[in-house]
Specification:
Blueprint (H helix, E strand, L loop, with lengths): L11 H8 L3 H9 L6 E2 L5 E2 L2 H10 L3 E8 L5 H11 L7 H21 L4 E8 L3 E8 L4 H8 L5 H10 L13 H8 L2 E6 L2 E6 L4 E6 L6 E8 L6 H6 L10 E5 L12 H8 L7 E5 L8 H14 L4 E5 L3 H12 L8
Parallel strand pairs: 10-11, 11-12
Antiparallel strand pairs: 1-2, 3-4, 4-5, 5-9, 6-7, 6-9, 7-8
Amino acid sequence: MAEDSPLRNVRIGDVARDLGVSPTYIRKLADAGVIPHTVTVGGHRLFDVAEARTAFRRRRDLRVELELPLAGLEEDKVWDRLQAQAPLRHATKQAIDIARYALTELVNNAVDHSGGVKASIRWEARADLLRAEIGDDGIGAFERIRIARALPDHRSALAELSKGKVTTQPDRHSGEGLFFTSRAVDHFDLQANGLRWIVDNRRRDFALGASSYEPGTLAVFEVDAATTRRLEDIFRAFTDEELGFSRSYVRVKLFEHGSSFVSRSEAKRLLAGLERFAEVELDFNNVESVGQGFADEVFRVWAKRHPEVRLVPTHMNDGVALMIGRATAIPDERTQT
């Protein structure tokens, strides 16, 4: 190609348009060394379109699909097999550590808890993203928890799962796996029993919806291949000096069945099991209002019954903050003379 060709030394936006992808994706491929480029003194990337096309065609997003019997399945062997067939050439060590943790936890969860016969695993090792889908043909994660904890419905089971330390086999598991997996990866999607729970850690947000996946459970996660987040830092955010799982983060909205929280029974559902922690952040984001009975049950009655647990309400609107403030200001009649 001639030196003065308009296809030489073009900017990232031009290459993205030529290849039909986003500039962000091109930037990640360039950072990973997949697409050659130069950098000007001013810090701008320049590309040769012909070279970029060739490299893009050579680039292969590696995908592996497995269907395996759950009986005797070992999660570390599954990871080794996936890496042999789709090696992680461009991911950071931090991304690999998180992906390995998440995949082995989810496979082990299917083996020990699903009650199913087989697992279907789809693994994608892309230049910009690590992605996995783990499905089983069991009874469904939310049904398993509903039965084990005698809960009224699957949404209540989902809400309990989001607290952490929830397991249907306490003699074999600590109940931390799914909780930490949902916090460690960049995107987490759990589907079972007609429900879908999505956790977006990039935005620290979540979504609830309907799912048609059946039978069993489908767990999906994504990890940015260039992430610098360390797995140990994620653990540290929820553990104490003795490395115990002592902190929890609860999205109050998960426990909502209407447009607001009013009753003491709603409060009791929210509080169930939180005595296992030393500190609990109660995130009231997108909660429109709470009633006097709800606030009193959480922040006066339960708090006085469990003084060893620190409740930290966050992201309250003015109305919610007022009701919580009133509840914490009411003196305990038992201490009055």
